[in-house]
């Protein structure tokens, strides 16, 4: 018994998802792929047994396809996810669910009308063993009451097309979801502060930036986002509790100790740091589908994350704190 998956978008992450679903995940087969670059789709499909289709809709409506992975650019996600709901097919949609809260809400409403959970969002950090240790230490009271957290999100470099607001919508959106999941609370207000810019970042870019996330329970999270840090990909998270602190460690870093110095390797990029995490995410999604359930980060989580990212972009532009106003959470997501 295998879940037959169709994949839309075979760029960076879509290619990795096809490879993992075809060769590493237990219980899945890739049967159809689509990308606007058909030659790329054909290269990625080669050797997996999958066929290429002429449009995204042809993948979604293919009777052979049991479930869909969406890894196309973010501004296409809402339309493609809505088509999956209309076809009654489970979908793992890469973040973001949609680029506006209005579009996220359309998807939430469509899923609620369908009466069952079909959508999972690709907030894969929830499947990372390091983050899971942090979550356990909060949930079981090991660190007492969780009061605040410090998070860091650094990339070596970004292309010139990367904008200051993308630091919120593409990068910090992961910390936004991580914060909501770790604390089990909503983010009610954001404030973005730019520091002195790095001379090595593009002139149009505010880099680094500090983001303050205020939680419904009174906690506060700081996020440093620095997308031109030069030295590698460095994601950190330290939660401060009333009785102790739990800190995320980068896994599998070897150390070279010599001449009175200790040198550790920093992952080059997100693919290296989170490779095993993407596999765990896909495996849990497929195992869940085989058992008849979708249980990962929901369309509500996608909506809330986009709403917080939107508020952070507004704060970046105005320099003032900006509240996050969410609609009432539908019963499907409680
Ligand atoms: P990418 O490399 O640009 O890949 C997107 C692919 O989709 C490209 O091949 C693009 O073709 C293709 N495409 C364009 N229009 C399409 C359409 N109408 N239907 C289907 N495919 C279409 O981008 P990426 O880095 O893989 O990112 C894809 C999504 O995954 C984004 O939403 C991103 O935020 C997300 N992502 C998530 C993570 C994570 O950690 N969870 C990591 C990376 C990316 P062209 O290049 O020819 O336009």
List the helices and strands and how they pair.
Layout (H helix, E strand, L loop, with lengths): L2 E6 L3 H12 L4 E7 L3 H8 L5 E2 L3 H6 L5 E4 L6 H11 L3 E3 L7 H14 L4 E3 L7 H11 L6 E9 L11 H18 L3 E8 L14 E7 L4 E7 L7 E8 L3 E3 L7 E4 L2 E4 L5 H21 L8 H20 L3 E2 L11
Parallel strand pairs: 1-2, 1-4, 2-3, 4-5, 5-6, 7-10
Antiparallel strand pairs: 7-11, 8-9, 8-15, 9-10, 11-12, 13-14
Helix pairs in contact: 4-5, 5-9, 6-7, 7-9
This protein binds NADP nicotinamide-adenine-dinucleotide phosphate.
Describe, in plain words, how this protein is organized in 3D:
The protein has 334 residues and is α/β, with parallel strands linked by helices. Helices cover 36% and strands 23% of the residues. It is built from 9 helices and 15 strands. Strands 12-11-7-10-9-8-15 form a 7-stranded mixed beta sheet, with helices on one face. Strands 3-2-1-4-5-6 form a 6-stranded parallel beta sheet, with helices on both faces. Strands 13-14 form a two-stranded antiparallel sheet. Helix 7 crosses helix 9. The longest helix is centred in the C-terminal third of the chain and has 21 residues. The two termini are 31 Å apart.
* Proportion of residues in helical segments: 25-40%
What structural class is derived from the secondary structure elements? alpha/beta
> What is the general shape?
globular
In sequence order, what are the helices and strands, one letter per element? EHEHEHEHEHEHEHEEEEEEEHHE
Low-confidence stretches: none
Helical run tally: 9
Biggest beta sheet attributes: 7 strands, mixed
Number of strands: 15
Distance between the termini: 31 Å
Q: Hey, roughly how much beta strand do the residues contain? A: 15-25%
């Amino acid at each position: 018994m295998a879940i037959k998956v169709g994949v839309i978008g075979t760029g960076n992450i879509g290619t990795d998802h096809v490879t993992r679903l075809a060769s590493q995940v237990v219980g899945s087969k890739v049967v159809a792929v689509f990308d606007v670059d058909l030659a790329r789709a054909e290269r990625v499909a080669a050797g997996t047994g999958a066929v290429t289709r002429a449009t995204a809709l042809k993948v979604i409506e293919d009777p052979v396809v049991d479930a869909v992975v969406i890894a196309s650019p973010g501004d296409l996600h809402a339309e493609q996810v809505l088509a999956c709901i209309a076809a009654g097919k489970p979908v793992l949609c890469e973040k973001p669910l949609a680029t506006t809260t209005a579009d996220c809400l359309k998807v939430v409403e469509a899923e609620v009308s369908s009466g069952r959970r079909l959508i999972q969002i690709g907030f894969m950090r929830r499947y990372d063993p390091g983050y899971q240790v942090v979550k356990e230490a909060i949930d079981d009271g090991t660190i007492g009451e969780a009061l605040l957290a410090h998070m860091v999100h650094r990339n070596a470099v970004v292309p010139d097309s990367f904008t200051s607001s993308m630091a919120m919508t593409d990068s910090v959106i992961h910390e936004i979801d991580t914060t909501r999941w770790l604390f089990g609370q909503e983010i009610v207000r954001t404030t973005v502060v730019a520091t002195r810019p790095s001379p090595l970042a593009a002139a149009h870019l505010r880099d680094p930036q500090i983001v303050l996330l205020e939680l419904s329970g009174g906690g506060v999270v700081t996020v440093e986002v620095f997308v031109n840090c030069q030295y590698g990909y460095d994601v950190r998270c330290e939660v401060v509790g009333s009785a102790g602190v739990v800190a995320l460690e980068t896994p599998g870093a070897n150390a070279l100790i010599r001449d009175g110095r200790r040198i550790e390797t920093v992952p080059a990029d997100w693919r290296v740091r989170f490779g095993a995490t993407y596999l765990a995410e896909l495996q849990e999604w497929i195992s869940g589908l085989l058992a008849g359930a979708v249980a990962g980060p929901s369309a509500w989580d996608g909506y809330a994350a986009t709403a917080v990212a939107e508020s952070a972009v507004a704060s970046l532009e105005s320099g003032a704190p900006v509240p996050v106003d969410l609609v009432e959470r539908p019963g499907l997501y409680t």
